[in-house]
């Protein structure tokens, strides 16, 4: 399961003592090949954590032997010393698995602005290296959790090969890309250039359309590693579909476990002049605190939808906007439509359909409701 | 007090029965001249309520005899019928004060997407017209409240003339401009063109820099009426200063009374390459739900400040960012600065200073914390 479902990968998850409570906090994923092709996408935030800066450099070579991930600290905004910590972590992994640090990606997640406890972390790398196994995927997925209440894993079987993945992320979930760490593996034989194209397309359709709280992280990283251990050179269209399925599955798990969320809201924009317009409108609606509160209160408050649509520069006429919530078109032509009492707001899944009446393009953005539990979870001292 | 502090103005506030609870819900402000010069600024939301569309037309003439305002319903997204309701309201005011509907502005606030109860509203206009008085400013300010817990009024005395004002607004408070209704009056002798210039400058520095929940309303309206009853032609620089002071005073009252807020947060951006950059960074930080939760929890979480700064395209280098909270520079050079335990987070007022180290420009954006009370207030069925 998880990142060890495909052939050629071993993983481990250990409690290194980075977190105070004794939970697992360090994961190691190793690609035993024969290929080491890899690609990555990273946060669009201009304030990037040290491990992001490091891993971007490493990925420039298109090859990864290993990924080391820690929870319990983001190693962001830690200056040159923080970058040295990341470098030292990669060197430690290289030493433990007898390989080059130049093919070791590093991912960190947790509080911004504090140095990592390096003694614990480096000992943890040694411990993880001794525990690497073909069964280690679940422990690795567990070790990268922060406020995640459950581990997020996925795998899909394709024509002679597999795609597996793990992810973490519960807060600071916003586009470009959604705040998170994610490692996806495959035993297909795919070049790093092909992996790059596939990963960018897959994440654009999945993680990039997730926005639970409008806050973009400093540490977002999604990595895709191919071992070629199956010996299969896949049809690229099928491979892209499988990777997209794994990303979508993990994105859904992130959404459902978002901090404090009680509703999973799909904002489906149709009738747009362009896909870009549809995404723009979806994002704007996904970021309306007032709407997210209303959905929490099971109030089909379409006025708040229109107020959010109206803040965008997408092509539309206000008097041609239609809005349905859970299939009931309660706003037609920019004004009152069907009886709002017909909308069943009780299910966890809520679909808001916005028809811009401006063209043939569509996009769906996923978000959650805004709850008192979100506030409580993020008001506690330094989470 | 309020809009009747300057000479030449009468006002009233009555309970017309638009709200169900019997509270005041209709206000009328009349300018008895001799001048009727006026200017207005309106929401930048492309989905505009009927009264906004009407009042924009009326203001094209640069003259206002009266303003009628109701709470209990926004008359937004109500189609052609909603616009007819606004028109009928202006006609009713014109009939009651024996003047032209073409110089009557209309403002509405409340739930989007429902028609107003016109029988009650039109009877209320008659009642308000009979109660117009030089003492009516407080009742008028009371009548426009929605979730506002207190009336918001202000007045400033200048060299031979006065500037007075009232405002409402507690939720959906976001720039361009902050969601709100506001009427400002003066007995100075100022042309409508001059009023327009002064009002745009004053609101750009005050209401436009208020962002409590990132949600832009369909009904924002700020009107400035001059009666010239003092006979004084003011120095325009002094007049602009007085109008700005009244706007700033009212903006502060809106901030302090924002839904659920326990903290008033000033985000002071310094060292910016341009004022536009400073505002952009201030707004981005003001919209970080995670930061707003942290401040609620009295956690000086500067990492969330940097994460929000990093999402903008303002000129800055991540490793030259400095951040102070309540005067303690807890982030220097994009990394850990002074001891965060020195920050006193207990006062209601919290100042976050962000030094972009990129130039001489500054701007301050005002916001509030995000609280469970905000969620509760906006989750209740259709507020």
From TrEMBL, chains A, B:
Catalytic function, reaction form: N(2)-acetyl-L-ornithine + L-glutamate = N-acetyl-L-glutamate + L-ornithine; L-glutamate + acetyl-CoA = N-acetyl-L-glutamate + CoA + H(+)
This enzyme's EC code(s): 2.3.1.35, 2.3.1.1
Pathway(s) per entry: Amino-acid biosynthesis; L-arginine biosynthesis; N(2)-acetyl-L-ornithine from L-glutamate: step 1/4; Amino-acid biosynthesis; L-arginine biosynthesis; L-ornithine and N-acetyl-L-glutamate from L-glutamate and N(2)-acetyl-L-ornithine (cyclic): step 1/1
Pfam families for the chain: ArgJ
InterPro entries the UniProt entry points to: Arg_biosynth_ArgJ, ArgJ-like_dom_sf, ArgJ_beta_C
Superkingdom of origin organism: Bacteria
Residues carrying the site annotation Cleavage: 178-179
Entry's Gene Ontology molecular function annotations: L-glutamate N-acetyltransferase activity; L-glutamate N-acetyltransferase activity, acting on acetyl-L-ornithine as donor
Compartmental location: Cytoplasm
Annotated site (Involved in the stabilization of negative charge on the oxyanion by the formation of the oxyanion hole): 109-110
Function (record text): Catalyzes two activities which are involved in the cyclic version of arginine biosynthesis: the synthesis of N-acetylglutamate from glutamate and acetyl-CoA as the acetyl donor, and of ornithine by transacetylation between N(2)-acetylornithine and glutamate.
Subunit structure: Heterotetramer of two alpha and two beta chains.
Protein name: Arginine biosynthesis bifunctional protein ArgJ
């Amino acid at each position: 399961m998880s990142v060890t479902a495909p052939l050629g990968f071993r993983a481990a998850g250990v409690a290194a003592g980075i977190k105070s409570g004794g939970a697992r906090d360090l994961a190691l994923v190793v690609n035993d090949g024969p290929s080491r092709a890899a690609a990555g996408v990273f946060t669009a935030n201009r304030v990037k954590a040290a491990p992001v800066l490091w891993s971007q450099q490493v990925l420039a070579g298109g090859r990864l032997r290993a990924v080391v991930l820690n929870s319990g600290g983001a190693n962001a905004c830690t200056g040159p010393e923080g970058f040295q910590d990341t470098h030292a972590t990669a060197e430690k992994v290289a030493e433990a698995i007898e390989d080059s640090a130049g093919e070791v990606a590093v991912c960190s997640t947790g509080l911004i602005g504090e140095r990592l406890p390096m003694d614990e972390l480096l000992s943890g790398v040694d411990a993880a290296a001794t525990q690497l196994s073909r069964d280690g995927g679940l422990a690795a997925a567990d070790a990268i959790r922060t406020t995640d209440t459950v581990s997020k894993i996925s795998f899909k079987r394709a024509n002679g090969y597999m795609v597996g993945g793990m992810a973490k992320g519960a807060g600071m979930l916003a586009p470009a890309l959604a705040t998170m760490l994610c490692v996806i593996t495959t035993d297909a034989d795919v070049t790093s250039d092909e992996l790059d194209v596939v990963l960018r397309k897959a994440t654009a359709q999945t993680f990039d359309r997730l926005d639970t709280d409008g806050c973009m992280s400093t540490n977002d990283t999604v990595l895709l590693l191919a071992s070629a251990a199956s010996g299969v050179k896949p049809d690229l269209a099928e491979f892209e579909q499988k990777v997209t399925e794994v990303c979508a599955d993990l994105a859904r798990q992130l959404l459902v476990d978002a901090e404090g969320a009680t509703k999973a809201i799909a904002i489906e924009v149709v009738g747009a002049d362009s896909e870009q317009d549809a995404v723009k409108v979806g994002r704007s609606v996904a970021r309306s605190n007032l709407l997210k509160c209303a959905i929490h209160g099971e109030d089909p408050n379409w006025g708040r939808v229109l107020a959010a649509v109206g803040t965008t520069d997408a092509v539309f006429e206000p008097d041609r906007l239609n809005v349905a919530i859970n299939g009931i078109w309660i706003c037609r032509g920019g004004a009152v439509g069907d009886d709002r009492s017909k909308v069943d707001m009780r299910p966890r899944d809520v679909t808001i359909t916005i028809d811009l009446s401006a063209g043939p393009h569509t996009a769906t953005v996923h978000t959650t409701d805004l709850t008192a539990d979100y506030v409580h979870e993020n008001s506690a001292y330094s989470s």
